């Protein structure tokens, strides 16, 4: 039982980190780095909000400002991120920027639950795949995680679908 609790807490922290990394990559690509950081963001392509959809268990992710969702292509990666609303809902996705992209990580904060798809220390949690139709990316799968208010309660799993325009 202790192993499951440690794993649940680790995945919760990973989901939170993925959301934060996605947001920091968004700021980097827009050139919002501190002076002297050396990153001008000149090679990044940024797309915003538009026709974004985020569903968890078939329902729109309430409380997520879809206008805050951005897609940044830089350094061989595609980063999709949103602003967290009151620290409650958030989104971060990292994919490869290949002809057939692969999802590397997903982090969602849903009703206080940190959910993730990731590989950690040789173990994988959750699953995700991406389909591309022109400049629209549809990421589907199952994320696992822990309740941030009670990480010792055990693992939860939720299905998700993220659709974002990334030109």
UniProtKB/TrEMBL annotation:
Keywords from the UniProt entry: Cell membrane, Lipoprotein, Membrane, Palmitate, Signal
Domain of life: Bacteria
Signal peptide boundaries: 1-17
Record flagged with keyword Hydrolase: no
Region Disordered, residue ranges: 28-51
Any Pfam family the entry gives: Myco_19_kDa
UniProt GO cellular component terms: membrane
Protein name as it appears in the record: Lipoprotein LpqH
Species: Mycobacterium adipatum
Organism lineage: Bacteria, Bacillati, Actinomycetota, Actinomycetes, Mycobacteriales
């Amino acid at each position: 039982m202790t192993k499951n609790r440690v794993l649940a807490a680790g995945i919760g922290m990973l989901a939170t980190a993925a959301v934060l990394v996605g947001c920091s990559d968004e700021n980097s690509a827009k050139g919002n780095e501190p002076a002297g950081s050396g990153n001008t963001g000149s090679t990044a392509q940024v797309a915003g909000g538009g026709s974004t959809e985020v569903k968890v268990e078939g329902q729109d992710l309430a409380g997520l400002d879809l206008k805050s969702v951005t897609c940044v292509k830089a350094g061989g990666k595609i980063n999709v991120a949103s602003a967290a609303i009151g620290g409650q809902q958030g989104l971060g996705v990292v994919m490869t920027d290949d002809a057939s992209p692969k999802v590397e990580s997903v982090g969602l904060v849903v009703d206080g639950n940190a959910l993730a798809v990731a590989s950690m220390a040789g173990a994988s949690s959750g699953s995700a795949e991406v389909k591309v139709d022109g400049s629209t990316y549809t990421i589907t799968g199952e994320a696992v995680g822990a309740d941030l208010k009670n990480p010792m309660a055990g693992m939860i799993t939720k299905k998700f679908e993220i659709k974002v325009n990334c030109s």
